[in-house]
Amino acid sequence: MKSRRWLSVVSFALTIMIMVGCSSNSGNAPSTSKEPSSSGTDPKPVTIKFHADGISFKTEDLAPIIEKFQELNPGILVEFVPLNEASAADNVKKIDLLSASGEQLDAILLPDARSYSQRAANGLLEPLNDLMSGEGLAYDEEYKINTSIEGNYYGLPASFSQWFIILNKDHLDEANLEVPTDWTWDEYLAYAKAMTKGEGPSKRYGTYFHTWIDYFLLGLWNQPDNNDLVLADHTVNVANPGVKKSLEIRHQAEKVDQSVTPYAEIISQKLTYRPLYFNQQASMMPIGSWMISEVGGGNEFTANFKTVFAPMPKNNEEDPNGYTTMSSNFVGVVSTSKHKEEAYKFLRFFTTEGLPMMKKYLSSWKKEDTAAALDVLINGSKDPSMVDKESLLYTLNNSKAITKQIPVAYTEEINKTYSAEFELMLLGEQTIDDALANAATKIEKVVAANK
């Protein structure tokens, strides 16, 4: 069944490539075979290609990692191939197209658990169990994020992120609000309403929620367990109170309090979170820890205000404080690679000693010196004084990871189905109860078709 699904993906991708006239540049690729040199002595080094998001992982960021790896492994050369499509999802589609075209793919980076799960299911990723056993890897002693799917490891976790709230300290002070340390979503909404100011095009909103599925599941992804729309055993979880809470949060902010950037404007004007936050058009937002290195300002945005941090809100006053989603992106060895061992060796280095060398992200490696890494991230910004380290450390130290499953392989279809009903609610075309009922019915059908 898996092989048929992968062949279907390959056939579809080839059709697209023919239509758009894509062409492979593999003719310019360096030699990758361990053949004897002309002198008949040492074999030529193997060249592996590493395809990854070229925005998050710039060539200059990866250069010292590759240089160090090649110094330690002189028989392996690494060629970084940056993917610079419009979005992370488009980068993944590009990987599918390159694979279908026969392009050399050895090691790849996938942006999230959903794309990782799907490529594991359709056969693009090589199971790593044998390579891990050969190395003697004790996985749980090495990594913070579990990547196993039904006992098989198809990838390794790379950069580490946890979700929290970033807040504009000037806007908090203006509204006479304290930096939160333990709060509910109802209190979050009250903060957003208090910091909302003005009318019309110049209106400042108290909060911003982006278009990602994360922002459609705010009341579910802060639950210790059972925190996805469909559970690992294919049980539909839409009746979970956290799902209804997710809709209520967004409905209250958008339709009642009018304290959030309107969803219709976000999608029609293609708004995104960084400009709105740094231009002080939104006072606070839930976001991931990749923003630690950015809120002090950088080449693209200047920080003219101090950012403080708070834990993710809880649904009810009596709930435990600090539960949040902690996740990573994923790197894997492509199943068609002719150099799987070499690719695996590079990815092991990349996900351990390598990532901290970037001085840009926290890593999923348990042996990373997190305190030192935070200092590097903060001090690497243009104005470290704009990053409130005290509230950041409190938030990180008082956050607890939810037990998060690797999503079912068809999660992308589930999320699209749910998001469509959520959007209709946001746009005022159906009630919360109707959105829940319709989402449950349609998701049941998706699950039945994929069992």
Output the CATH homologous superfamily of the largest domain: Periplasmic binding protein-like II
What kind of oligomer do you see?
single chain
Percent helix range: 40-55%
End-to-end distance, in Å? 11 Å
| Count of discrete domains | 2
- The CATH architecture of the largest domain would be 3-Layer(aba) Sandwich
Signal peptide: 1-29
Biased composition (Polar residues): 25-41
InterPro entries: Bact_solute-bd_prot1, SBP
Family: Belongs to the bacterial solute-binding protein 1 family.
Keywords:
D-Maltodextrin-Binding Protein, domain 2; two-stranded antiparallel ribbon; alpha/beta; 16 helices; 13% strand
Could you explain how this protein is built, in words?
- A hairpin with a 2-residue loop joins strand 4 (148-149) and strand 5 (152-153).
- The N and C termini lie close together (11 Å).
- This protein is an alpha/beta fold and 451 residues long.
- The model is unreliable at 1-39 (pLDDT under 50).
- Strands 1, 2, 3, 6, 7, 8, 10 and 11 form an eight-stranded mixed β-sheet that branches.
- It folds into two domains: 16-159 and 329-379, Periplasmic binding protein-like II (D-Maltodextrin-Binding Protein, domain 2, 3-Layer(aba) Sandwich), CATH 3.40.190; 162-325 and 383-450, Periplasmic binding protein-like II (D-Maltodextrin-Binding Protein, domain 2), CATH 3.40.190.
- It is 41% helix and 13% strand.
